[in-house]
User: Fold this.
Amino acid sequence: MELFRAEGILKHFPRSNFRLSIPSLTLAAGSITGVVGENGNGKTTLLDIVAGESHGEGNYSYFSNNIDSKSKWLELKNNIGFIPQRIPRWFGTLEQNLILKASLEGISPNDIDKELDELLDFLGLQKYRKLKWTEISTGYRLRFELARVLIGNPKLLVLDEPLANLDINTQQKFLSDLKELLSKKDYPLAVILSSQQLHEIESVADQMIFLRQGQVVYSGSLEAIAEEETTFLYEVQLIHNDSLTVEAVLKKVSSEFKKVGPYYQVTTENDVSSFLSSLTKSDCELKYFRNLSQSTKRFFN
Assistant:
């Protein structure tokens, strides 16, 4: 079931001459879509447009409704939950803010406590509900903001860089919550989020979109990346006293390689088993290995 569809998304910034151009985008119920790419390549602009925070040219359909009037758009926007990268500060206790949001959503005063208890139990926030914004960490602020937007039962969640400034454990907990949320909700829900944390996003995403200079370099599943490519891409770190020896080994097992920080990215026709077998027979110690063949990391320059 499609919850969002857009054709011909276009946004031009005359002063910088930056142009975002997305031929099409579809978000299905029960799915997570990851938007990645280097900084300044259009991720936030795209999410702002999807969330209705910014206008972009194109044809848009939300929840099987085309936008043909301002009144209809206001009704549809109530079904979109948007969390920006910089979350505005809450004032008062966290519980007071959630009660206010529930009241504004029309939830009966008799049902608010039950609704909040269920939501806070699910997100593991129950013991923090009486605290204030300044008394909780960045990770808990994000999860409370998620709780706030979920009170309205949105059909579309738009999250701009939600993993920024979170430690690895908090990142994984948040993504796990999203995945579980999709499986438990008794109404259709789709999630689109941007991030620089490729490995973490790719572990939960159903489809990935890679942007470069406002253009779509890739859009689809991770499995489809390998189907479209004729070579494998690996990231390795080899240890040897002589760096020339390391590169000599890589020349034998690859068609191309390049150094990226402490690692080498290696393009080869050898599958994982053959590639690792060749490396273990060399004089170098294999300290790190990662298969990037089904990762959007292969699209970074």
Notes: Residues 272 and 291 are 8 Å apart (CA to CA). The chain is about 35% helix and 30% strand.
